[in-house]
Structure formats: C-alpha cells, structure tokens
Design a protein that fits this description.
This protein is an alpha/beta fold and 324 residues long. The protein is built from 11 helices and 13 strands.
Length: 324
C-alpha cells in the first residue's frame, strides 16, 4: 500500500513546526516521509541539496527549515539570518523545479508584514510599508521565499504554495532563558516561581498589547490541508503575485490575559505584577485568516488546552535536561 502513497520530504523536521508536520503525516498513515538532519544534509549547500532532491525525487516538499530566533538573536546575527534562510529556500525550490517536483509548501512568518500594517493583517498588506527593523533581514528572506514560489509558478507552471503562521507555541518549543519567545519564556518563569514559592512574577510593560497564538499541531494540520487542496480551489482564493495564505487562530488576547492563563496552566498561585516602566512593543499583531477559513479550515486547540499541553512538554523537556 505504501508505494501508492506520495513520497514527502519535510525539510526542517527537527524544528517545532517541521516535527509537528511529521507527526501529523504519520498520524494520517503516511509511511513514505523522508527527512535529513543538518549533519546529513546542509541545506545551504546548493550541490548537496540538488543531489539529494535528484536522488529522492519526492512528490511533495514541506519547506519548514529556517534559521529562527528572538529579537536579540535577529539583532546580533542579521547576516546569518538573511543568508542562511535565503540559501535554504532558494536551493530547495530550485532543485524541486529541476527534478520536476510539482507540489511544494513554503512556511513563512507573520513578520513579513509592515510594522504598521492595519489590523488584522491581510495578505494584501505585503510590501505596502516598512518592516520591523529588528528582524528585517529574516523578514526579507521570508518574503523572498514567497516570491520564489510565485515566480516558479508563473514561469514554469509549478504548484508551489506559501502559508504564513501567526505566533506558534507547543510541543518542541524553545525554552531557553534568553532567546525563547513569549509563551515558552512565561511558562519557564511561572514554573520557576511556583517551584521557588516566589510571591510575585514580574511582567514587562502594561499588559495591554494584544497578540495571537496558534498551537503548533494546528499549524501542521493547516499546512497539510493547504498542501492537499485541489489546485483550482487554491488558485480561486489567491492571485499569481499574492498567493500566500495566513494561518491564525482567529482571535487575540492581551499580554495580561496570556500571563494569567499561563499562570493557571502552570498552577502558580502568586500575584502577577506589571512593570509599566518597561516598553510594551507593538500594540497589536493579529492575522486576518478569512481566506483560509473560506477554504474550509479552522483551528481546533484553544489557548487553555494548548498551554496545558505546552506545559507538559516543558516538564518533559526539563526532566530530560536534568537526566543529562
């Protein structure tokens, strides 16, 4: 039976999204999933990527590989972020075309949109304004990935699609104390406060900015859903030069609401205090997901459920570190 299945290459299978896509494909019964670690295949090496794609000849490619990081990492290593991301996507997309891989899904990021884009951010906000300075190199690389897909579609008639996720969290997240994103950072902070019996947890800012969060398994499900849409249906909801699709939860929460929900999920019973002398950042970042909803997909995991599963993953992660 397995030889009738498509051969699927997931680039970036060790990352949070890539590993979720592999889990979801295997849960569907896909047995012909191809992966390679960075040690086995350097995606910035054009010759190595071309040889690998030519040898494996996959039917579908999920391009979830990326160099990612928080504000500090983006600010400190801008050359690495633009170079590595550009090379990975250019090498994979070009090699896919050379071998005749008809179907590919590129995973982008909400940072492709202008810093001051109207809320909620629609797909047509792309390239209408200045990007957030701190992660501009990464955003430029992700925009280039969208345009690579569109260009190969326009010139060669390929079927290369792009999805732009909102803020993701869940199993496989990065809980590093200095360079993690907001949810894993809060999970760690509340857990440590609970363990030490700290009476308060301090959060930067006023707590009023709003952010949207999507559980990573929902993102994986959306990716597979978009990949498998009939081309006529996908094309009817996109344009040749504006083909990417937003993937969001559909609602956002204040940072205060987020902190309170994380606190409950972790079981922290102390007080949450906001340091209003610290900066808030952008007032709101919310994706417009109407295009994807019109295609028939909606998320399943709400924030409370997702945070409880994320906390269990954090506990498993920290117990493994202790054993090591």
């Amino acid at each position: 039976m397995s030889n009738l299945q498509p051969k699927i290459y997931v680039a970036g299978h060790r990352g949070m999204v890539g590993s979720a896509i592999v889990r979801a494909l295997e849960a569907e019964g896909q047995t012909n999933v191809v992966v390679r670690t960075h040690a086995e295949l350097d995606l910035t090496n054009q010759g190595a990527v071309q040889a690998f794609i030519a040898q494996e000849k996959p039917d579908q490619i999920y391009l979830a590989a990326a160099k990612v990081g928080g504000i500090h990492a983006n600010n400190t290593y801008p050359a690495e972020f633009i170079y590595q991301n550009l090379m990975m996507e250019a090498n994979i997309i070009h090699a896919a075309w050379q071998v005749g891989v008809q179907k590919l899904l590129f995973l982008g990021s909400s940072c492709i949109y202008p810093k001051l884009a109207p809320q909620p951010m629609r797909e047509d906000a792309l390239l209408t304004g200045t990007l957030e300075a701190t992660n501009e190199p990464y955003a430029i690389a992700k925009i280039a990935g969208i345009k690579l897909c569109e260009s190969y579609n326009r010139q060669y008639g390929m079927d290369y699609r792009s999805v732009m996720p909102t803020n993701l969290y869940g199993v496989g997240d990065n809980y590093h104390p200095e360079n993690s994103h907001v949810i894993p950072a809060l999970i760690r902070r509340f857990h440590e406060a609970k363990e030490s019996g700290a009476p308060t947890v301090m959060i930067w800012g006023t707590g009023t900015p709003r952010r949207e969060f999507l559980y990573v398994d929902d993102m994986a499900a959306a990716s597979i859903y978009v990949m498998n849409l009939d081309k006529s249906v996908y094309d009817a909801h996109s344009e040749p030069m504006q083909s990417h699709i937003n993937v969001g939860y559909g609602e956002d929460v204040t940072i205060r609401e987020l902190a309170e929900t994380v606190g409950r999920s972790v079981g922290y019973e102390g007080e949450i205090v906001f340091d209003t002398t610290k900066p808030d950042g952008t007032p709101r970042k919310w994706m417009d997901s109407q295009r994807l909803n019109a295609l028939g997909w909606k998320p399943k995991v709400d924030l409370s459920q997702g945070l409880e599963m994320a906390y269990q993953d954090f506990i498993a992660h920290t117990s493994v570190l202790r054993m090591e």
